[in-house]
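A common beginner's mistake is to predict each chain separately and then try to dock the pieces by hand. The better habit, illustrated here, is to supply every component at once so that their relative placement is modeled jointly.
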Amino acid sequence: MPDTTFLDSTELVLNMGPQHPSTHGVLRVILKLDGEKILGTDCVIGYLHRGVEKIAEARTYAQFNPYVDRLDYVAAVSNGLGYCLAVEKLLNVEASPRAQAVRVILTELNRIASHVLWLGTHALDIGAITPVFYCFREREEILKIFEQYCGARLTTHAFRIGGLQYEIYDGFEQEVKAFCDMFLPKVDEYEELLTNNRIWMSRLKNVGILNAEDCKRYGVTGPVLRAAGVHWDLRKAQPYSGYEKYDFEIPTRDNGDTYDRYSVRMQEMRQAVRIIRQAVEGIPEGPIMAKVPKVIKPPVGEAYVSIEAPKGELGYYIVSDGSTQPYRVRVRPPSFVNLQALDRMVRGALIADVVAVIGTLDIVLGEVDR
Amino acid sequence: MRRLLKKIFLVDLAQGLWVTFRNQNPKYIYTEQYPAERPKVAERYRGAPRLNLNPETGETLCMACNMCALACPESLIVVSSQRNEKTKKKELVTFTFDTSRCMFCGLCEDSCPTDALELSQDFELASYTREGQIWDRKMLEEGPKPTRYKC
Amino acid sequence: MPDEKPVPPKPAPKPPAVMAATPWKSDLTRELNDRFGEGVCQCLSYVGQNFIVVGPQMVVALISYLKVGPGFDYLVDITAVDWPQRAERFELVYILYSFARNERVRIKTQIADGYRPASVVAVHLTANWLEREVFDMFGIEFTGHPDLRRILMPDEWQGHPLRKDYSILQQDQRWVQENLDGASGQ
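With all components supplied together, the output reads:
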């Protein structure tokens, strides 16, 4: 087998720098190329490092809540849910059923919003410019619901430790139901645009294959793991916040390539609508805030709580030393751990595939760098 | 055979194009013509801070309890007060709010016992200087006055 | 000399509050005791979450055994906590999860400043970036790591931010001056 580098071609090091339209944030990837084929990659991150874990040590538990939204800024509600669940675990309280139902509705709406933005930007990176407009149009409807509920569209600060701050507004249920009815045909529209499209299929099939074995070795979770065939979702395996009451499926596929991840996320959007419909049918009456002291001082101890965020397993490890400020808050970001697998997925592929793979991993640099 | 015909005549691409053409209908225009039409924000929108006045007496509702300053994660509220000798109650003197560092989280309005401090629906907070972003009591009570365009 | 009132002796300082952990016994703990001997792994539990406290030399052996035997094949997280008052200042925490058993377990060790624990990259590939981050934030060097360098902070940064003696307002003045053209905005 002749050595392909024999013909006077040397290795080229190309910098896909922090400012790049396709890297979903400030991600720098140093590519070692042989022509256009990739021999190796090296990700340089830290351009968006804001020291959130250090800030946590100087704020009280309730004061840290708004900072947590800024981690995965695309889907802010899940971050808040994870943090509140972790502190509630330390305090040994559980939110009331009404609070849990509203939390589930908002978190699933947030999942749809995150996947919809993922679809728009991923399609844009591949070259399909139309879906991004339609996706942002749908995302606008969800953000309107968030705005009417908690006052902000993106950095929602929707949940408080122990439950909710705001009662749901009049018309919440009707608007959510109207959104669900409006949204399912739109998912069909996206599928019509993309799923059978020959350009889409040839760009995405067999690109960035990560099989189940590699996923577990690299610790990859979320839709990437499900597309590789592992039937696992934290909402079913270790349910939290009342998810065991709802009936939904976990979509899985076999190949673990980019096309499968696309299908898994489209199906997850449909399943999320299913969960929302069930949750909004019967929101139980009752208080929205559990009995939590005004000054939150959990006993000495530590807890690790993780949830199924739209990007993967988002975990919070909080160590408390008995005072009003947490001693250590560690955020286990799904995007950080998923990004490690980038190197494995693009060996031997072309540069355009790097763009597709970064898109399909669904990374948000706010979470990667914290 | 059908598959070959579909492939030659670009049926899947035509389906996608048909979706795009269907959405060209002018009734689907979503663009808001700002600044002629300002968006209607929700009632609970967390925008510019405002110190409310009592509608009947015109005096400030703030009782200088300092709860908002303690609740703020960024510690950007500074409240100073003096004790009124006649009524033996604290009275507000100055109230400084630094909107350049504010993240509009709403913890201050949640903690205010008299609903004096409120995050209103104003979202136009731009100013030309960093110092202009630090609001004193007068600015907080009147609110930012963005330029209105006659259209 | 003015009369001085006798100063009452200072009350003895309260011992720092300790986590109210309860012992944890299960099949897994019996297996571990059989394999490693009694008393090597302290198995405890707090708010329903189980954790194992071991000495730092045992960590790699324990994690490899847990991967092969009971099937804890997914390393969720590696992190550290800085307790400056203790002699063994850092507490390394490894969180493992088993898909088959649907169980999560934490492994904690205490290491002193300057101790260089062994890396678990050979057992779980996830540890690559996670250990780089622990090195970056705390200064704990892992032996056997293929590529130990800073990941979140710039490469030339001095200091390890998440240590308790690194104040939140501190910056590496030299780096800021060189790279950001002058004084910082603080």
